[in-house]
TrEMBL record:
Amino acid composition bias (Basic residues), ranges on this chain: 353-362
InterPro entries: DGC-Regulatory_Protein, GAF, GAF-like_dom_sf, GGDEF_dom, Nucleotide_cyclase, Rev_trsase/Diguanyl_cyclase
Residues annotated as domain GGDEF: 219-357
Gene3D superfamilies named among the record's database cross-references: 3.30.450.40, 3.30.70.270
Region spans: Disordered: 346-396
Domain of life: Bacteria
Lineage: Bacteria, Bacillati, Actinomycetota, Actinomycetes, Kineosporiales
The protein, known as: Diguanylate cyclase
Length: 396
């Protein structure tokens, strides 16, 4: 950079214009820092540029981001490894670090960093902290191959470039935080707060999409309504905290037993709904076999007792299965699965019943597969090791 104020101002204007374009293009903080290194390398009278970021997530350590030209990455990465060097001092003390001659031991105190820089042919360096909103965001390192005094005017322009960059970093960080907040809000609005599973809103969206795809392929989707038996007895006997533990454990175990394309949702309370798409169904027998496999995985997932409240609670479930027909809506499918589940409860022991959704059906769906049985006695065991106690009894 020339010491003349006119040429320096023009170089700064060009550099700021490029950074502004990057900032307006919704760049991330790291992308802005990479842009800073490239812009400074093109428009300032320097031979090398490096940028570091103060990574607060990493315990406040300096992290290398970018170098221009690439050879400068060597000493910059060394600063990251050693956590020492001009950029580290600039960030730690929030001051400019100016070294006119790296071969002068009076001006340097970085035993490993200095030889690495000299080996690349650089003789002087300036490190400027990027400070905004009361915090340090990173540092800008500028290298020259010739030793000599860095003039006040050029340092002033460079300082302004660092300040503008820090302001853009604040904007980018705020934008990223807003995006994260939006994603979290969207996730929370579509997922159950306790189990993290999709909630009713997301379930109905996926039901609608699945039914539309099934109609195009002239196939069926399966909806399984899973209701934990006598769950109220768990809350009454062991407390709601234990009940929450059971719900979370059951949700995680069921989720782990399913295929990636299946959707498990918590509808309300102790009710879960499983949406199964892309089941093999070249014949009714093949579809029945596929559903048997799903039920078997659910049974295995629930087989192990849940340890909580100083005891082991053995969970059972009644399951109703509904298969979509030609004109089935999400409400139809869920209502049919719900009805099949209550039929399973009424028939005594815990089991599984199936039905084909007949609402607005325009073609014969073929025979309904025979129901597979899911019999898991619900009997909390006492903490004294006296064996299981039936504290629930049969019923809905």
């Amino acid at each position: 950079m020339s010491s003349g104020s006119g040429s320096s101002g023009e170089a700064l204007a060009r550099a700021v214009a490029e950074l502004a374009a990057a900032a307006n293009d919704r760049a991330t903080p790291d992308e802005l820092l990479r842009g800073l290194a490239d812009v400074a390398g093109r428009h300032l009278a320097v031979d090398g540029v490096g940028v570091m970021v103060l990574d607060e997530d990493g315990g406040g350590t300096a992290r290398f981001v970018h170098a221009h030209p690439p050879a400068v990455a060597g000493p910059e990465r060394l600063q990251q490894v050693l956590q020492e060097g001009p950029c580290q001092d600039a960030m730690a003390f929030q001051v400019e670090v100016v070294v006119d001659d790296l071969e002068d031991p009076v001006q340097t105190a970085w035993e490993e960093y200095v030889p690495a820089v000299l080996d690349l042919g650089f003789r002087s360096v300036v490190a400027l902290p990027l400070v905004a909103r009361g915090r340090v965001w990173g540092a800008l390192d500028l290298y020259r191959r010739e030793a000599g005094t860095w003039q006040l005017p050029e340092l002033t322009w460079t300082r302004l470039l660092a300040q503008v960059t820090a302001s853009y970093l604040v904007m980018a960080a705020d934008r990223d935080e807003a995006r994260r907040a939006e994603r979290e809000l969207a996730h929370h609005s579509a997922h159950d707060a306790l189990t993290g599973l999709p909630n009713r809103v997301l379930l109905f969206d996926r039901l609608d999409r699945a039914l539309a795809a099934a109609r195009r392929r002239r196939e069926s989707v399966a909806c399984l309504f899973i209701d934990l038996d006598r769950f109220k007895a768990v809350n009454d006997t062991y407390g709601h905290a234990a009940g929450d533990t059971v719900l979370v454990t059951v949700a995680h175990r069921l989720q782990a037993a399913l295929r990636g394309e299946d959707t498990l949702a918590r509808l309300a309370g102790d009710e879960f709904v499983l949406l199964c798409e892309d089941l093999p169904q070249s014949s009714p027998e093949e579809l029945s076999h596929g559903l048997d496999g799903v039920v078997t995985r659910l049974r295995r997932a629930l087989a192990e007792p849940v340890a909580c409240a100083g005891t082991e609670i053995v969970v059972s479930a009644s399951i109703g299965i509904a298969l979509s027909g030609e004109g089935t809506t999400p409400d139809d499918l869920l209502a049919d699965a719900d009805g099949a589940m209550y039929r399973a409860k009424r028939e005594g022991a815990v089991g599984t019943t199936r039905r084909r959704s007949g609402r607005r059906r325009e073609r014969s769906p073929g025979p309904v597969p025979q129901a597979a049985q899911l019999e898991l006695p619900y009997r909390p065991a006492d903490a004294a090791g006296e064996g299981p106690r039936d504290v629930t009894g049969p019923g809905t």
